[in-house]
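S1.2 Input.
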Amino acid sequence: MLDLARERQGGVSDYRIAQLLGLKPNQISMYRHTAVKPSNPVAIRLAELCDLDPATVVAWVNIERATTPEDRLAWEIILKRLAPQKRLKQAA
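S1.3 Output.
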């Protein structure tokens, strides 16, 4: 998603993405090179930079962040429930 954010913001640098997200540049590097996932508020801001549905992005981030099968399943259920709403919005 970081690459998509860079593209959607006109090919800006990771440094600029960090500024737009209100983060330090080393946090972007952590997201790129480690298993660290953004917090929910950062995921929402990142979704907005990418012109994506923030709720869907938060659900995906939490699926990736889940540490137990139960947590993962809960977020997968939420994501499935969000999908029909997205289709309805696109049809309108």
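S1.4 Remarks. The chain has a mean pLDDT of 91.
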